[in-house]
Amino acid sequence: MNFCLAVFRSRNETLYLANMLIAAGFRVMVINTPKDAGLSCGISLRFDERILGAVKKCIASRPFRSFGGFYRVIVNGGRNTYIKLK
Length: 86
Prior knowledge:
Blueprint: E1 3-8, H1 11-23, E2 28-32, E3 43-47, H2 52-60, E4 67-76, E5 79-85
Antiparallel strand pairs: 1-3, 1-4, 2-3, 4-5
């Protein structure tokens, strides 16, 4: 199943966004940032692509200065493909 990542340069901001979304009732996971995603603070936020709009709204509502972007992750066998979203 495909999913999205929100990548940050700050661990604190990653955890802050995760807590915001969990409090709003969304299911998200904090995971190790894959090297293929470019930026790395060590952790990123993984979520279902269907809630991308809600995640974007949360990010726009606060000054997340370390936000590095969104990636769509396409799962194909044992190798994932990472596509940076605009």
